Amino acid sequence: MERIGDKLLSWASVLDPEARDQALATASLDIVHPYVALMPDAHPGLGATVGSVIPTVGAVIPAAVGLDIGCGMIAVRTQLGAVDLPADLRELRELRELRESIERAVPLSAGHYNDVITPSAEARVHELEALAADAGFDPSDPTRNWRLQLGSLGSGNHFIEVSLDEHDRVWLFLHTGSRGVGKNIADRHIRIARNEATARRLDLPSRDLAWLVEGTAAFDAYLAQMRWAQRFALLNREEIMDRVVTQVGRWADTGIVEEERINCHHNFTRRERHFGEDVWLTRKGAIDAGSGVPGLIPGSMGARSYVVVGKGNALALNSAPHGAGRVYSRTAARRTFTVEQLREAMAGIEYRDTAAFLDEIPQAYKPIDRVMADSVDLVEIRHTLRQVVNVKAGNGRIHDARSGEICWNVGRSRAVSVGAQRARSGGHAAHQRKRPTGRHDRHVSASPFMKPEPEPGGDVPPLRTDLSDGALIERARRGDRAAYGELWQRHAASARTVARSYSSLDPDDLVAESFTKIYDSILAGGGPTSAFRPYLFTTLRNTAASWGRGRRETNLETLESFEDPASSDAATLDALDRSTTAQAFRSLPTRWQEVLWYSEVEGMGPQQIAPLVGMSANATAALAYRAREGLRQAWIRAHLRNAEAEPECRWTIDRLGGYTRGKLRARDTAKVEAHLDDCARCTIVAAEAREVGSRLALVLLPLSAGVGGATAYSAWLSQGAPAVDVAMGATGLPAVLAGVPEVAGGAGGGATGGGATGGGATGGGATGGGAAGGTATGGSATGSTAAGSGTAGSSLGISGIAVGAGVGTLVVAAAALAVFIAVPNLNAANEAPPAVVAEPAIDAAPAPVPAPIPAPIAPPAVPDASVDVDIPVEPVAPGPPAPPPVQPVPAPPPVPVDDGLPAPSFSADTAGGLVDPLLTGTARAGASLVVTADDDRTWTTTADAAGAWSLVANDLPAGTTMLTATQADATGEVSPVAEPVAVDLVTPALALRRSGHLVWHATFTGVPGASVEVLLGDSSLAIVELDDSGSAKAVALTGDDELADALVRYTAGGRTGPTAGAVVEPG
């Protein structure tokens, strides 16, 4: 950030001198307070700089809002992936069909609108009519055709794009505003503001900086009409996006599930409070970037775009850039660049190849990478989008150089009625959707194969918020250690199972070292981008091999193979690596490889895979289906590459994908079918390809985990290991991932994680793995699966362990981040399972009941001597009568003695010696109580009207402390000292062992069932639940040595006990 003068702050590292001078002129206005903020994409504009944020007091500048009121972006994340586009995007002909269908559905170019109001736009038009009536103006004056403008794109830098994010998910993205009706409203009020400035004889740097004064009729009229135009712009984007969604769904032959929709403005003004004062904040080419506010920042034509969330930077007035920002005017761009340069910049992107778009060439804009780098303290990047299809429009005659087609004002009167849509699509109804109630509503496009959208209040399935492995990897790449902790949570148990197959190597250390190596690689820009588990298995195998060479150890599983070198692991893996199946798998897109690993190798279902790939279960099922089909085709192509084939065979195989999807032309379809009828070899190969998925586990597991690791892992899965729970990890994400570092988030229960159910291995604290209740190499252990709520603040129970308040995700000290993750405990006794009692069969004949055996009669019990019992005795003759009793003389009544104020009475509750005592007692009503420890510390309180009192004697040390108490009444009289009460407190123990520079193994011991809090300085790292044996294990991910200074203490009922330091064991 750069301060320019007294009232201008700039976040633009590249700033045109004209834009700088224009911004200084705006900042000099008396109505500006406290300063103007320039965004990274700032460039000259009408009156005020585009990319400027202008706070004004008591006035609004219409030209600063701009001519295209409410201009902005809208984006939709769909359930589709790259797998739903042509393979490797090579078949651009199919993408061209998609582009042209969008061009037919949406009127493009300046001055070109709909011919009729479509049914989908009708409800939106009615809403705008009612809004205008409420505002007291008629938008038809002077824009009589404004209703037909709704659902049209415009020209210039407005666009429609089909993009892929970093996980190859399909996004639909477009940019447009309030069209001609918005411009007419802006022009009218800019003129009014100029006239008022002239009448007031204002000396302005530019007449376009004239303002309207708050409280005047002109101000109120502009504000009402501006808000109407802003609503028009938003609904215009909604209408266009609905049409684009429909066209994409028809092209992909599937209903589109909108998993996220974001709609944001960048030309508007509204009342906001900044630095303690209410201002009219005008964002001219800037988006709202308040804390947690979603936003969209597009790049130029052909460049990347970004889905972001605001950081709430108060200094930047909670704002961020709206795009790349021009560096060449349109005229200068046309003079400077060539069509060949535009084609080079758009390589691999389907667009209409025409010189009409030369002024939109990426080189005419600031590099979007520079803009985003300048925005690092303004927004956080959620997704990076790369264009696949680009739709734009120019003015007048446009010539497509590739097709030779001449289009006159692309989009004119095309696909503007439902009737026309039905005629072209064979009767399909146009996509319709109720107006959303928020920016993140989930919408489902109409489709005969999908359930209709439920009515409000109906049974709506929840939107998945799980982050995929790929998303977690990207967060870890940006230094988010909590995201890497979630990856550990998901995959560590599987890794331990593989690690235990490597002879005497310590499995925990092997897993820790492998995770550390991957983390280092990710931070260095390498490592996996998705499919984390197979990458982890390969790293485990390589790490074990390097450790084995260093220790001159030999894997036990290879001893029997020395006589036959061809059967060694190396030879086996080399053969598998050269196999057709491996070649076919590696040729697939990363997204397909990931879902095939989990579905075909690990045997998971869509519900279990969904959180790992960041998709809904239905979308995951569709992705898996397409991936399996893609594998078959890839296997066929690889088979033909490895064998000699006739040209006709190669031609046929190359088109089998399109043939399967019904995308071939009639002539090509007939040719393929004729060849398959005549060629037995191609027919057999195609049939074998259908079974290739079942062979994946036999090939991929050994390649990634080694032969021994594959055997152990396959046995673990086949014996009922909780692959689902392990894969799912925590059901929610830590608060650090959700942007709330103050609250440890809800990586809650419902997940087994870390090797939950089933056996483990002894030695080195290895946990997880093995079958449920079964054994694994190196030992056995029982385990248990804990359930939780999955909500923030809940605990994740694993073998009696719970890391509460977010499963150990936390911010430590200044900038260090540690992630605590619970792992299964091996200290539980190996108890035999309870005997299973068979249920009697239904309707079975009852078993014969044996005759009852009479119980022996017990002799009468002899009464206890202490019990009064009437015992019969022999009668005795009466003696002489007793003399009459003497009447006692009554004693005088006692005289009351005033003993003064008595000592109070009290008791201490320490929750079993764990936490600071809660003292409760009785005293005289209203008396002041003073509790004193044997180290002279004191605590005070007052008795209530009933004489009851309580207090917590906090910060007592471990060991025994004697407490006494006195009371004093209102007269100042002080009671004697009460009898001392002994308080005995204990502390838990924490043993730390470091493995590499990232992983710490933590072992907690103490009172069974107690809760232990981990502290570092003033920060609470985690709450750990001890199991029934009084122990727990966890893993901390942090590269900081200061974890050795961690303290532990018991916690219960909001109270805590004395602390004890960690003991660091040698690694």
Descriptive notes:
By secondary structure, the chain is α+β, with helices and mostly antiparallel strands. Among the domains are: 17-425, tRNA-splicing ligase RtcB (Alpha-Beta Complex), CATH 3.90.1860.10; 577-704, no CATH class; 923-978, Immunoglobulins (Immunoglobulin-like, Sandwich). The protein is built from 27 helices and 42 strands. The strands form 11 sheets. An 8-stranded antiparallel β-sheet has the order 14-15-17-7-8-6-10-20. A 6-stranded mixed β-sheet has the order 1-2-3-4-12-11, with helices on both faces. The chain has a 6-stranded mixed β-sheet with strand order 25-26-38-35-34-42. Helix 13 (481-499) packs antiparallel against helix 14 (507-523), helix 18 packs across helix 25 (696-718) and helix 19 crosses helix 20.
How does the helix and strand content classify structurally? Answer: alpha+beta
CATH class of one domain: Alpha Beta
Spatial strand sequence of the major β-sheet: 14-15-17-7-8-6-10-20
Q: Which CATH architecture of one domain would you pick?
A: Alpha-Beta Complex
Outline the low-pLDDT stretches.
395-465, 551-568, 721-817, 825-876
Beta-strand content estimate: 15-25%
Question: So, the CATH homologous superfamily of one domain?
Answer: tRNA-splicing ligase RtcB
Major sheet summary line: 8 strands, antiparallel
Which word captures the global form?
Answer: globular
State the distance separating the first and last CA atoms.
45 Å
Helicity level: 25-40%
CATH topology of one domain: tRNA-splicing ligase RtcB
CA radius of gyration is 38 Å
Average pLDDT score:
72
- State the total count of DSSP E strands: 42
What is the overall number of helices? 27
GO molecular function, one term: DNA ligase activity
Protein name: 3'-phosphate/5'-hydroxy nucleic acid ligase
Organism: Agromyces bauzanensis
Cofactor: Mn(2+)
